[in-house]
Amino acid sequence: MDDKKVRVRYAPSPTGFLHIGNAQSALFNYLFARHFNGTMVLRIEDTDTKRNVKDGEASQRENLHWLGIDWDEGPNKPNPKYAPYRQSERNKQGIYHKYIQELLDKGLAYKDYSTEEELAEMRERQRANNEAPHYDGRWYGKSEEEQKAAEAKGLKPTIRFHFPKNHDYEWDDIARGHVSFNSDNLGGDFIIEKSDGMPTYNFAVVVDDHSMDITHVLRGADHISNTPKQIAIYEALGWEHPTFCHIPLIFNPKTRKKLSKRDKDTLQFISEYKKHGYLHEAIFNFIAFLGWSPVGEREIYSKDELIKVYDPNRMSK
To answer: Which of 146, 199, 277, 301 is a Cys-bridge partner for 204, taking CB atoms 3.0 to 4.6 Å apart?
Structure first.
C-alpha cells in the first residue's frame, strides 16, 4: 500500500450522540490512517436537516477526543483544498448540483414528478402482487412537454439516477472478499436530489469521497446495500471508486439483532461509559476487538500498540 496517499474519513450525521457503532467505525478509520501514515478526515453529513439534533456534532467531537481519536482535517482543521467539511455548506456552494446537472445532460438521470400519493399507491400495488418494492421508472424518458405540464401544476421534481439493465456492480471488499449486485435487483431508479434541492446520502457521499481524494472507505456492514448504488454513480461520472471495507455490526446478545438506540439495557453511548467512570483506554481497547483481532492470544494493548499491530486483512466477516 502506498503510505503517502492513504486518506480515510469518518462521516457521522449529527442526528444523535456518539454511539458505540459510530465509535467502532471512527476507531477502525483512525487505526487504518495511523498505521499507514495516512490522513484521517472528519466530515459532517448533515443533509437530513429534520433529524439533526442541536449538539450532535459537538457530542461526536468531544467523545471522539475522550476516546483518544483525533483527525487531521475537519470543520475545526480545514485544508483549503478540500473544505468545507459539512455537507450543508458544500451544498450551498453548488458542489453537488453541478454533477447532478452533468448526469441530467448525459441522460443518466431524469426528473420525476410523481407525488407522494402516487408513489404510495405504486408500493401498495406491488405489495398486493407480492413484488419487491421498486420504483417503476414511470418518469424515465418523458418528453419536455410532459415535464412542463407537471411544472405548470406546481409539482417540484426529485432527480433520479437511471440504472442500466442487467449490469453487475462489483468490488473486492477488505473484510468480505468479492461482492456483486445486479442492477435489476436494486429497487429501481433511485433519488439523487430531493425536491428541495438537497442531495441524497448515496449521491453526496460519492461526490465528497471523490473530491476529498478518499482512498479507503471503512464503514458498517449495514451500508453494503448502498455500495452498488454509489459505484453506479462513480461509473456514471467516470470516476474510480475507493477500496471498501464493510465492518461487522455490533449485535445485542439478547435479541441477536443489530444494536439499536432503543435497546435500553445496553450501555451504548460513549458519554455513558465516561459517566460510569470507565477508562478511555479500556473502551478504546474493547472497541478495537469488535470485528477485528490481532495475531496471538493477547487481549490488552495500548493505543500505540494497536496502531502498530493493526492489519485490515484481519477484519472479521
So the answer is: 199
pLDDT digits (tens, 9 = 90+) for 15-44: 888 889 899 999 999 999 999 999 999 999
- Do 104 and 124 have their domain in common? yes
Whether 200 and 191 have beta carbons less than 8 Å apart is answered as yes
pLDDT tens per residue, range 73-130: 999 999 999 999 999 999 999 999 999 999 999 999 999 999 999 999 999 999 999 9
54 Cβ contact list (under 8 Å, min separation 6): none
Same structural domain for residues 35 and 52? Answer: yes
CATH of the domain at 104: 3.90.800.10
Instruction: Name the domain count of the chain.
Output: 2
Strand-pairing partners, residue 167, are none
249 secondary structure, DSSP code = P
Grid cell listed for 32: 487504518
Report if residue 132 sits inside a domain: yes
Domain co-membership, 197 together with 116? yes
pLDDT digits (tens, 9 = 90+) for 124-136: 999 999 999 999 9
Indicate the pTM of the whole model. 0.93
CA distances from 303 to 36, 48, 70, 300 (A): 15, 34, 12, 10
Domain containing 9 equals 3-93+248-314
Q: Please give the positions annotated as active site.
A: 261
User: If DSSP codes are grouped into helix, strand and coil, which group holds residue 213?
Assistant: coil
Three-state secondary structure call for residue 66 = helix
